[in-house]
Amino acid sequence: xxxxxxxxxxxxxxxxxxxxxxxxxxxxxxxxxxxxxxxxxxxxxxxxxxxxxxxxxxxxxxxxxxxxxxxxxxxxxxxxxxxxxxxxxxxxxxxxxxxxxxxxxxxxxxxxxxxxxxxxxxxxxxxxxxxxxxxxxxxxxxxxxxxxxxxxxxxxxxxxxxxxxxxxxxxxxxxxxxxxxxxxxxxxxxxxxxxxxxxxxxxxxxxxxxxxxxxxxxxxxxxxxxxxxxxxxxxxxxxxxxxxxxxxxxxxxxxx
Length: 256
Prior knowledge:
The chain is mainly beta. The chain has four helices and twelve strands; from the N terminus they run βαββββαβββαβββαβ. The protein has helices at 42-45, 116-126, 175-181, 218-221, and strands spanning 26-40, 53-55, 62-76, 88-99, 104-113, 130-140, 143-152, 159-169, 185-190, 193-200, 207-216, 233-244.
């Protein structure tokens, strides 16, 4: 795929996972999520995506996401999730991608997390851009506040403070809201090889959210232009349990 080409038939945007994952490689729950998104020119982010992928777009526009939440009980295979090491706040900066097979996904530019061991495992074992940060998620009535301050590897002190007021449930999400949240895989590089990691989870319960505070430099620290202006979309979800399948090579063949 050339840097500026687009797959002829990208998979449809669906609110439900296209395939079940009966034998997961990894299980976890994502709780108390705040989704903040800014519109971006595809040309500005294309060079930050893995080879073989291009920016996924809706009406010619792609998006930069800042997503804060609580990771809960990460577990391997069918083993129970780990209560302490597998439970921690996380904030990620992500882009949206599509590959030659038309598979839509996300590309993580950074993943700040508060547990050092999962950060080390993610970085050293899987080549993921995990970073160790001081973090908290606090709820006060209908207001949720997420904070982070990076410790290692840097840039040290890169931070975020996000506060949202949770509003009414979204009865019928728009096409854009599905585009930003209903993502059924991740594109990435694992020790020099391109892989696609599929995931599945129940349909999101989404709520409108009012952004009360957003003081952050994580987007710029991830190599993207700093956001100018308010996000075009602010959503909240109480969360979902998620399952990840075996990674697939570019041709769609599962790895051994």
